[in-house]
Amino acid sequence: PHVTGEFSLCPSVFLSIDCGGPTGTRTDELGIKWVGDGDYIKTGKTNRVQVTTSYHEEDKTLRYFPSQIKSCYVIPSVAMGKKHMIRASFFYGNYDGKSSPPSFDLQFDGNNWASVTTSLDTTLYWEVIYAPKRDNISVCVARTSPDHIPFISALEVKEFELGMYQTEDTEDVLLKWRRTAFGAKDII
Fold first, then answer.
1. What pLDDT score was predicted for residue 9?
2. I want to staple 154 with a disulfide (CB 3.0 to 4.6 A). Which of 43, 57, 89, 98 is the partner?
3. Where does the record place the Malectin-like domain (predicted)?
């Protein structure tokens, strides 16, 4: 599948995947179009969470990987050399009834990104900004312990205009450390 104008914001690519969600598209209250993940991954199983402390629809489903050591989403047709922001979201929500949030590794394009330690009732996000060297992006979750099953709730890809997040070297990678809204009265 190719990312089409349906997911673009003049002219940058904007793709939001509801992992484990239904096929087709839906638009959230912010106007963001979400798609199911079936076109981007063929492994794993889907489930709904039991704890619903999140008000985001994309947090109510997830895809988990009980049989694989490493499982990857592949996002095709991205612009090589242009900066992209990749955001991976994880909401455990006691989907398996064990009340035991797992830990696992997160990777992008074969590079280690983060060691993810999930929470029972809080959505956790990891973001990276980089320029892909190929015309696709892979985002993987990898098992680090036999009794910890990796999962993912949502995956977002945003292509930035040239010059945004410009660095000295096209191979520089920016990882989110903290996001601060200076002067904001309300933060969603």
1. 35
2. 89
3. 17-185
Over the chain (188 residues), the average pLDDT of each successive run of 10 is: 35 82 90 94 95 83 96 92 91 96 94 92 90 91 96 94 68 60 62
Rounded to whole angstroms, the Cα distance separating 143 from 67 reads: 10
Encode burial over 131-168: b for 16+ CB neighbours within 10 A, e otherwise: bbeeeebbbbbbbeeeebbbbbbbbbbbbbeeeeeeee
Domain residue spans in the chain? 14-175
Q: Which of 142, 138, 172 is nearest to 155 (CA)?
A: 138
State the pTM of this model.
0.83
Q: Contact, 32 vs 25, CB < 8 A?
A: no
